[in-house]
Amino acid sequence: MAPTPLPIDGLTMIPELLRRYPQARQVLDRYGLQGCGGPEGPVESLAAFARLHDVPLERLLEEIRQVLSAPRPPLSPALPASSGPPRGVDAIYRPFFLAGILVTLTAGATWGAYLLLRIGWAGSFRAVGVHEINAHGHAQIFGWVGLFVMGFAYQAFPRFKHTVLAYPALAWASLVLMLLGIVGRSVGEPLAESRAAAGVLAVASAWLEVLAVLLFVIVIGATWRRAERGLTCSDGYILAALLWFAIQAVYEAVYLQALLQTQSREELLTLIAAWQGALRDIQIHGFALLMILGVTQRVVLPAYEMAAPSRRGSLAALALLNLAVLGEVFGLILLGESRRFWAGVWYASVLLLSATVMTLVWHWGIFRPVREADRSLKFIRAAYAWLLLSLAMLVLLPGYQFGLLPKLAPESLAVQIGFSHAYYGAARHAVTVGFISLMILGMAARVVPTLQGVDPRRLPRLWVPFVLLNAGCTLRVVGQTMTDFLPSAYPLMAASGVLEVAALALWSGHLVRLMFGGWRSRTAELLPYIPGTPIEEGHSVGEILARYPELLETFLALGFRPLAQSWLRQTLAYRVSIGQACRYLGLPTQKVLAALNQAREALPPSMRSLPVLTS
């Protein structure tokens, strides 16, 4: 009997399409599929693919139908017969993500947690050296954030522009240079005070990182130039972030050399007070924030079908955000010249930045209900909540410093020197870990399954690392702020680092396993379901319910009582076949299959054949 034709519409799943019609891949490759998801492509619908790759759905469907109706489908003129670049480039994100994980679990978050324990034990922030703290912070910015940004950009941006990556050899070189720089900097800077050679190593490593960043900017710029598509609003944010990334790399290298040349602790602290705050604003608000806002508009909003950004409003916000970052930077650098005026410039810039971000978040509807949530959405929403909290803390800084502290802790060091390093550092932590790290965790948890061709609904929900990271960040922000009032708050703050590292370790183990095929064995037992064919015991319970939600009552009547819980239908059901469930519940498999197929045949013809999954 001839197989039932597969309907080609927005709800058609890419793996089903490519299994039945492999020649359709050339159309998807032309619009950016190119190796994603393996031979069968990612587990997502054509409508989702069209949204994420910014191609009109009707055009995509029409081109697929034309290819399928041709007697001998022509190869895409845009790509060679291999349907994309070499396999190594198809998965270029993997070594960058893996390197980022290794950095944060060693010189980044883990080292930071160790330093925090020393501070908590001593009850003083002066228990650790400046160069130790800076080397740890540097590893987080360049290794954790930088490597993940570079890996995602090399993988995704060419596909979003319907082209291939320019100069892949330079992209690989940027990884090597960045890793050498991070290792050299992490080893050299803490030892520089006692060994001159270590200082030379640290500075040389910083300039290797500058070269890596410049190669990254060149490759992404060349990729954009070779694409036929023009710049979009989100591209503007990403280009601005790349510019800030390059600026901060040069700034960091020059600043490090100046720090290592100071002759006394007083000179060192004076230099830090004048220049380090501006550097952190460039790194956090100029580079990381603008990059994440750009990726949100390009990936998050279409993925969850949130409100599309207004072009005029988005570009106006981009101009205001860059103006605010400039104001923050020059306000802090020039603070010593005319303290009151430049402090006002900095604070006005903070207000502008906060108001602009709040407007964007409200317009996008990040916290509004979506049609289909997944395991990553909680990370993304929590990240934006932490971003808003960090900005609110900066806005409230004058009230805290000059109103609350003098009344409740008049003898504190923060009142004596006129600035609370604890409160300001807590606000920084809220944005670096609460916002940036949670966004990395959430986006990677969504992107990697797509690139690996694994259905994310069959994967763990990652609640444990989510709760641990949020709990750790909360302890750090609250505990560090409370050190202005209570010495007993230091141990509370110190415990936060352990929770955060545990969260990152659990999440990293899951992601590495996913990147290198660890989940395929669990999903390989489940047979893919083709609409219009009988239900078999190897089909996933969750997939059948997603295609035929009307069969829920049949499942329940047959004895599948756990399916009454919606969370089980959205999670475990996708990892269990009908046969496995029958054996577990002690139900006769053939009787269950007969009842399900009978109920399916009783549905209207259109509902029996059309796929309803929307990924």
Describe the structure.
By secondary structure, this protein is mostly helical. 71% of the residues lie in helices and 0% in strands. It contains 26 helices and no strands. The longest helix has 39 residues, at 265-303. The radius of gyration is 27 Å and the shape is globular. It starts with 13 loop residues before the first helix and ends in a 6-residue tail after the last helix. Residues 540-591 form the DUF1858 domain. The chain crosses the membrane at residues 96-117, 137-157, 164-184, 196-224, 236-262, 282-301, 313-335, 341-362, 383-402, 422-441, 462-478, 490-512.
Descriptive keywords:
disordered C terminus; mainly alpha; Four Helix Bundle (Hemerythrin (Met), subunit A); single chain; 5 domains; 615 residues; globular; 26 helices
